[in-house]
Amino acid sequence: MNFDLTDDHIMMKKMVRDFAEAEAGPGAEERDENEEFPMELWKKCGQLGLAGITFPEKYGGVGADYLSYSIIIEELSRVDASLGVTVSAHSSLCANPIYLFGTEEQKQKYLVPLATGEKLGAFGLTESNAGSDAKGTQTTAVREGDEYVINGSKIFITNGYYADTYVITAQMDKSKGNKGIAAFIIEKGMPGFSFGKKEKKMGIRSSATYELVFENLRIPAENLLGEEGQGFKIAMTTLDYGRIGIASQALGIAQGAYENALNYSKERVQFGKTLAEMEVIQFKLADMATEIEAARLLVYQACHMATMKRPVSKYSAMAKVYASEVANRVTTQAVQIFGGYGYTRDYPVERMMRDAKITEIYEGTSEIQRIVIAANILKEQ
Amino acid sequence: MNIVVCLKQTFDTETKISLNSDGKINEVGVTRAINPYDEFAVEEGLRLKEKFGGEVVIVSVGTEKVQESIRTALAMGADKGVLVQDPALEKADEWVVAEVLAKAISQLPYDIILAGRIAVDDQSAQVAVRVAEAMNLPSVSSILELQAEESKATATREIDGGTEIIEVPLPAVFTAQKGLNEPRYPNMMGIMKAKSKELKVMSLADLGFTEAPAPKTSEPVFSLPGSRKAGIKIQGEPADSVRELVRLLTEEAKVV
Amino acid sequence: MAKGIWVFIEHHNGLIRKVSLELLYQAKIIAETSGDPVIAVVLGKDISSVADTAGTYGADKVIMVDDEKLENYTTGAYTSVMNKLAREEEPQAILLGNTAVGKDLAPRLAHRLGGGMASDCTGMERDEKDYLRFTRPIYGGKAFSELTITSKPIVATIRPNTFPSGAPDPTHQAEMVKADAVIDGDDLRAIVKEVVLAASLRPELIEAEIIISGGRGMKGPENFALLEECADTIGAAVGASRAAVDAGWREQKFQVGQTGKTVSPTLYIACGISGAIQHVAGMGSSKVIVAINKDPDANIFTLADYGIVGDLFEIVPLLTEEFKKLKS
Fold first, then answer.
1. A233-379 domain in CATH 1.20.140.10?
2. Chains with ≥3 Cβ pairs under 8 A against B?
3. Which residues between 219 and 258 in chain C have a beta carbon less than 8 angstroms from any beta carbon of chain B?
4. Shortest Cα distance from A349 to chain C (angstroms)?
5. pTM of the complete model
6. CATH topology of domain B2-207
7. Of A7, A18, A62, the CB nearest to B188
8. What ranges do the domains of chain B cover?
């Protein structure tokens, strides 16, 4: 078992780190304060090839492995978690289901521009009455001739409003429960598709979180993704892989907060010594470092399973639940180490602490992750 | 157009410098990177290739660690790399490195030779200009802009208090000053392709040297700066502390 | 036989650049122990007054090469002339200031002479074996290197403000020697098409005795006017940290730091500058450092000789007032 990153991974890590520090870092606080979507940075990510890392070159991607993807999302999130989730949601939640379930025509039409970063993607599953209980989808789709007519709304959609392409779910036959749900590819600008509320959030404030509204939205029949009734499975599979992205985001947030706290401890002097010379602080830092390593190994293991096309569900759930909880513990401790300064906007740790919370909630709450893990381990021999 | 870029690998600029027990600069745990000024040279080379077609070849002297930096330049878009690696070069000074680079470059097709104007480690700022001299080529140092044509180039060069515009026939050597361009990040596609690009490692014998050129300087003795005496923070209301500062500057430090 | 220490005299509009005077001063001190004459080398056009001035600043002899082709500095022509002279006269050492000209000419000349060179030296002393021993900063000033040049003539560039320039002695006259400019065709390949000098009355950063710099704490380009006003009361130059340059508040040529200019003024006043290691690399060898910053924990205070914890927008205008009173 080789725990070392390959030369390629090391080069990718450095490239994204340099990019994130130079370009995303300086304005991160301001974008967070103003809830400003990082459009220019997103475009640069596209130019650097970060929008379609795991997709084959023939679909405009880079053809790299999941570990590469994780490294990229981690490095972006280490500096700006909002930018990290912008890229992650685009790639894992929109481009990936099209890659896994789309027809060749759909891949050429939608996946290629998503993979090259020409277009931004989003995923609309969540509704006001269907969060963890995704089966409770109330958005409806009705087949009419060679079109589907969609009515309903989605909330809390990452990249909403700015995204060009959306993969959404809608119920076609309530009597069938989850087996009645279908997935569709829709585009911004289609008549009947509009945007509603922009959420004001505790954290990842520069990530766009919008309500999607469908009022007699008519889409061509060929925009059905997969088969009718396959929508729930498509959503769940999408989330299985998407969790790797969020776990990587959480890992990045934790790493960034930890490094800030570590550096501060070496400089800050109280009672005639640096914080780093005090055992109390040393123990905090040791725990933070250890938990981050453990989270990283879980994330890398999930990447390995995904790249090898082996069942990933249990591993991505473990990585996500653990990394997100680590991110919350680490960022809280980081603010604690900074003391009063950590609570102010002078240092980035307060933002990181606010950013960390959502990782325990979206793409499956920690409670849902535990259900997934339990379901998997109870099934095993 | 045949573009050659001389690249040096240096310590990351944030490295804390210390001496080991032999009095040498401590290299343990140090992060290495392409000399920032050489990045401007690589970027300029890539832009010339984009404009004129041709190839960008990276040439460097050093240990096998330097391969990583050459690969990064290849990931940025350079086509080939040449690394001159030889134990006899361990104590090479600027004279030696320039002679070796000149020999290596002479064996390649070249129209334009680019390098950073200075390396952030030894800060000698000699080698590239020496290479030009060794190859009997014109050199233009510290350029802020370069306009090339098939057989000549016009460069804007930084001088004290301003700039000058110089025209030279090609081939010629140009050294890059900060402000020449914004080096690109290697993109993902470039990174994936870099490992399949040619990186030739050559010894002095491979280049045709029967013995290593001899250095013209003594082996340096290193020291660390003495720590400055602790200063004082002047207390008091702004107007009073400023008055006290000026008094100290004039009467105590005698610098104003 | 005494061979001579050469000092390359850089001049503009009939005035000798301060660094060349500093080299004459130090060359004289070295020459006193070695018995060598101090020889000023002046290239240019209509240079007799420059040559005379060099004499009053301590040159025992002045070699003058007065030629149209040398009116403006060009790499090739100057290298050619210096090389030919050096091969004939065989000086012990050729010293140049680490200026744009020095940085460009010295390495080319050193290689043509087949020898070594010490760049940007902040110390120079007699050496028993190799005639001169140099100290120079490396790694952005985080370390120093001491070395000798084992070939002859020694070529070295010296950082401005390292040595004092001394006072001229108008009665001191040097032996004047004229030499012809011998320039190979190959050395005339580069053509200077245009020289654009920025009209700035403030001293060059690398030569300024006093520098006032602004960093992230300046908060915007317009606020540098405060520093400019202060600088102008005492004839100082205005510098900037990388943060201010990256933010677009100041041009790159004013950046002090590892990837900017290295300065060693007598007084460096850092306003709203945190003192990150890369900035210190560019100004750490300043004789006296003053820091003005509202963050008492800013790293700059650990190396400042004098510090004021306060709002620079309040402090700098007060400083300007005090300097005005001083100068009146």
1. yes
2. A, C
3. 234, 252-253, 258
4. 18
5. 0.88
6. Rossmann fold (3.40.50)
7. A62
8. 2-207, 226-256
